[in-house]
Amino acid sequence: MGSLIIAEKANVALRIATSLSDGKVNRVKVGSSTILRFQRGDREYSVLSLRGHIIELDYPKELSSWRIDNLKELIRASPIENIKVRGLDYTLKKLDQENSEVIVATDYDREGELIGVETLRLMERTDGIRRARFSALTKYDLIQSFENLAEVDYNLAGSAEARGVIDLMWGAALTRFFSVTTKRLGGEFISVGRVQSPTLTILVERETEIREFVPEKYYELSIVVNGVKFNYDGNPIKNKEEAERLLQILSNSNSLVVKDKNDKERKIYRPIPFSTTEFLRDANRLGVSVERAMAIAETLYQHGKISYPRTDNTVYPRTLSIKSILSNLSDSYLKREVEHLIDHSKLSPSRGRIETTDHPPIYPTSSLKKSELKGDYFKIYDLVARRFMATVAENADILDTEYAVEAAGLRFVYTASKAVNRGWMEYYPIVYYQEKKNPELTAGDEIGFTEPKIDEKQTNPPPRFSQGSLLEKMEKELLGTKSTRHEIIQKLYDRGFIEGNPIRVKPLGMAMGESLILNSEAVARPEMTAKLEQEMDQIAGGTKKKEEVVADSRTILAGLLDDLINKSDKINEKFYETLRLEKVVGKCPKCGSDLIIDYKDNSRFIRCSGPSNDFFQFLPRTGKIEVTDEKCPVCGLFLIKVIRRGERPETRCVDNRCSYNTSRENFGKCPSDGGNLVLRRSKMSTRFIGCSNYPNCKVTLSIPQKGDIIPTNRKCDVDDFPIAIFQYGKNQIEQCLNPKCKSRTDSQH
To answer: What architecture is the 2-50+85-152 domain classified under in CATH?
Structure first.
């Protein structure tokens, strides 16, 4: 009799088999599954790879009707378990008979433990069970894991099982209630969830704060000394009259005296090791969405490039060899940086506040050449590798020089700054420190100044959440877990509640969020969800039973539904009132009814809400739309502004076919087939030039994402592509539109 190893994914199964067998693996068919077999010592091992959860929870068919009157019955019902993979039960029974031992080698977290326990249940296996726990898929880590097998943690699996039942119960009941109440069924159903909804209301409340914010003007007085800007010590100045009075005093003098010069040393402390939240936040700062960053991290883990990416830990365990990891990295494209780090650091790692025993912080487990990974995959690996290096580097040493000068009796200040030792900042791509020029003054100097002026400014509303800052907020409010938060955020995008990054709440999201805030504090606020998360931890710790927590949750939800049903009319009224107000952008030029922005099938459009519906135009898929009071000089309809992050607002006619738009978007003829080369945008709002005859002609040209591109109606002498003017602020470059044209590549050498 042999040993059966249960792995969660095919890549992991293969790495386990090749690591334990030195690459001598056979593939055999058992039922509909492919099994990896190998010999280790005098024992035969079989590795079965699953595809995540093999059990899917659902409600019985008799409860499939979406009605209000069966919701209580729905939450009292026990979900049924469906096997997701056909024929898997046969395969498991056969493998159970052939092996005297089963080793669970799924991911070591709540969901992974549940997947293992689900498999054992299907096998009806109760003895001869062991657990392999590992945080990296290197040969060394896997061998160590299988030589030190542990026991399956049924409490940990129970906490995941309770979460699954509770999330299904809350999601199904609340989604059905709100969808039926607002009469949005079928493909337009309203998604409500235990974690999703309080996360949405956080965004809705921030959006409301921004909209209701009333900016206040203030003034700042400054002068220029030796090429740097000194600010008046009394800034900000509350009113314009006072600012102008001070400027008048200043105009009577053209010299100043340097009163003080003080040098101060400080440190910029190195970052802490990567937890999942820290990792996703910084990946998002590099322009990778949290959902994509997590998917890439999972892939890199499965290929043995980084450690397990789902962790709360911010303290490296003592057993982790810092020198071994750096030795690995010294064989990579980071060789020079690693050598510099070893020469200039004590290699004593930083520590965060959270220390757990399940998985270490995320770190690189394998070296690679720069050519092995491309695009976001390289960006994510590089981020993990450099973060590790930054955590074992030295703190940065900064020298600040504080100046105070006096002109016409007014005190002005400035702080110069220089990195004496950049420390960890040499290695990490996300650094916000900037050196500030030193004017090289001496106390007692009497010198002239220039450019005395007043800047009028105004206070700003709180910033919108980015995906990264929302993750941090969710972690603080105990919303979701390290494994689910990025998925929750992505669901809000997928359900049409939010868009962009920083995150802007769409009309549907505002309607849903305001309805929840006004009518159901329990669903809208994080307290209820946080309490349930703590109970999940108690199940995992063995101090509470799964059945007890699920029963409590049923009781809470039943009471909540009673309250919601009593408020059905108010919820429906508030939902549609907000939705209508959110969508209104102006008046119809034909009948005077409200013009609204609406969405359907991944498209958005502007239409008349009047009874005749006599105005309709598709809108660009991305960017915030603002309707202006200006008329199109060509057709007389109104102009709209499309506001996209990092770009100057685009003004265009609301009629897509108007020559006001097409003349600026048509750059000339395609040399391939004579079609028009026109400005296009991808689903992610990346702009490019493409042929109007696509898909018959697949000519596409990459263009800069910033600046204006202006047609010239002239062709390049080298390749016949149109010539365009690329404008960046005041600078202009006239060149061929084709980035691969020899006329452009030659000029770059």
So the answer is: 3-Layer(aba) Sandwich (3.40)
CATH fold for the domain made of 162-210+464-574: Topoisomerase I; domain 2 (1.10.460)
Residues 260-280, mean pLDDT to the nearest whole number: 96
Q: For the purposes of burial, counting CB atoms within 10 Å of the CB of 488, is it exposed (0-12), middle (13-18) or buried (19 or more)?
A: buried
pLDDT reading at 728 higher than 90: no
DSSP letter for 430, please. Answer: -
pTM of the model: 0.80
- 3-state SS record for 450-474: EEEEEEEEECCCCCCCCHHHHHHHH
What are the contacts of 727-731 at 24+ separation with CB within 8 A? 728/704
**CA–CA distance, 367 with 334 (Å, rounded to integer):** 9
Indicate the fold that domain 276-394 takes in CATH. Topoisomerase I; domain 4 (1.10.290)
User: Mean pLDDT throughout 722-745?
Assistant: 87
| 413: helix, strand or coil | strand
Please check whether residue 364 is in contact with residue 385, taking contact to mean a CB–CB distance below 8 angstroms. yes
Nearest residue to 442 (alpha-carbon basis) of 724, 687, 225, 701: 225
Q: What is the DSSP letter of 187?
A: G
- The tokens 């690996």 sit on which residue? 381
CB atoms within 10 A of CB 53: 15
* Element holding 387 (H helix, E strand): helix 375-392
pLDDT for res 748 = 61
Tokens of 355: 């220390």
Question: What percent of the chain is modeled with pLDDT above 90?
Answer: 65
β-strands 708-715, 722-728 pairing: antiparallel
Q: Which pLDDT score, from 0 to 100, does residue 747 have? A: 64
pLDDT at 533: 85
Which residues lie closer than 8 Å to 68 by C-beta, 6 or more apart?
176, 177, 180, 181, 565, 568
pLDDT at 423: 95
3-state secondary structure of 557: helix
More confident residue, 355 or 684: 355
Instruction: Look at residue 186 in the predicted model and tell me its pLDDT.
Output: 84
Residues 595, 588 contacting (CB under 8 angstroms): yes
DSSP string, 635-658: T-SEEEEEE-TTSPPEEEESSTTS
pLDDT at 749: 55
Does domain 219-269+398-458 fall into CATH 2.70.20.10? Answer: yes
Do residues 503 and 465 lie in contact, with contact meaning Cβ atoms separated by under 8 Å?
Answer: yes
Catalytic residues: 308
pLDDT tens, position by position, 111-166: 999 999 999 999 999 999 999 999 999 999 999 999 999 999 999 999 999 999 99
